[in-house]
Design brief:
Elements (H helix, E strand, L loop, with lengths): L1 H13 L6 E9 L2 E11 L7 E4 L6 H14 L4 E5 L15 H10 L10 E5 L6 E2 L4 H13 L3 H16 L7 H12 L3 H8 L4 H16 L27 E5 L7 H18 L11 E5 L3 H4 L4 H14 L4 E7 L7 H4 L4 E4 L7 H11 L10 H4 L7 E5 L11 E5 L11 H9 L2 H5 L9 H30 L4 H6 L2 H21 L17
Parallel strand pairs: 3-9, 3-10, 4-7, 4-8, 5-6, 5-7, 8-9
Antiparallel strand pairs: 1-2, 1-12, 10-11, 11-12
Amino acid sequence: MANKDTFVQSVKDNYTFKGESFRIGTAVLGEEVLAGTDVFLPLKTMNRHGLIAGATGTGKTKTLQLIAEALSDASVPVLLMDIKGDLSGIAAAGTVNKNIEERLSKIGGEYKPAAFPVELMTLSNEKGVRLRATVSEFGPILLSKILDLNDTQEGIVSLIFKYCDDNKMPLLDLKDFIKVIQYVSNEGKKEIEAAYGKIATTSTGTILRKVIELQQQGADHFFGEPSFEIDDLMRIADDGRGIINVLRVTDMQNRHKLFSTFMLQMLAELYATLPEAGDMDKPKLVMFIDEAHLVFQEATDALLQQIETIIKLIRSKGVGIFFCTQNPQDVPAAILSQLGLKVQHALRAFTAADRKTIKQAAENYPETEYYKTDDLLTQLGIGEALVTALNEKGIPTPLVHTMLVPPRSRMDVLTDTEIDNLVNQSKLVKKYANDEDRESACEILAAKLEEAAQKSEQQAADKPAKASKKEEKSTLEKVLESSVTKQIGRTAASVITRSLLGALGLGGKSSSRKKTSSWF
């Protein structure tokens, strides 16, 4: 059959690479799995980002697991954001079962169970390496975008950062930032306005409310020290495999803003820290974001723009980003256009809206003469997907229906005992276990305000003391200085003067009068 032969040759030509690559599955045409049509993905383009999409239960997470295993084998470190809590099993070897045997009989190959080097991480109080970052590391622009501030409020945040830099007051956690906001709104307002310009109290009030909203989502666990070092994400195990960092964020499903905050900060830190890498044979790090719709669900336009910018630029640093979500439409079009690898599992068409969504999803993939994409999207089985990638020259490969290779690690979660053993063996857990609370803006401002209060109290105490010293006079002095005493003295002096003048005959008419005074 010419059509079949042409298809087989197309797969061989487009999915076999000169450089290092890994097998993801075998091509399917109609209902036939075609021998000799193994589908490979090149490591060289894994920093061009990707999408793994499909309805619930179609095998997205297992595809993510499969690619992560292949990257680890190729000495590429991986970061998995585990929203559902079902990725920790990658640290344990899988087991052969009937479904795996049946799949291998179709696609060929040998199943070799394997456990992979894993580091468990957390943003909260779950077991694992604590990830933190300081407020200063975010910077005023990124922090303002996360808080969804307007231009005026963003200017005040920049002013606060400038004031803290000028006065050597580190902004480490949210209580530092809140303390400075309160200070510039009250006691320090005159000082700030004299040096930096006027500040509207209404704006600082809004910023404070936004920060408190972030706190309500548990951000206090994330902001602080010791700050996580990006290099610790890019470690290689003793056996030469890349370490798979599993960030357990099962408690983030209702805290979208905190999840977005972490992801954006991590990307920004990677971009700022890593040097330009250019074209590499394989990436330095690949990040997988499961349930990616949580990142974009409540993101502001400013935040989306920031994510889009970093996605475009971080490729040149050797970092790949993969979004795993139910529908391609969950990812903004501007970001979707940047994703080189697309693995599309089945979509369900239960309603008219679903059918419309499927047609839109089909338009995201290259046209093909071998499939009717929108129909096939509803007919794919579990563990099957439509695949298109970038070849080593950066050109999109033709769409191919692929039956995927099963993961070699456990396709289930670790037990509590296994998690405890993994955590106890970790060097990073000990490194980041204890909170640090060195002197920062909160303590410095508190000391400054306390010193000012003590001076004020001392001045208030000094005033009555000075006043009492001035009033410490004898009773005689007080009597003599009174207005009544002075008036009596003036009257007595007048009487005495008249009496003397009369005695000397100088008193005029009064000199002939009878003496009335008994003093002479």
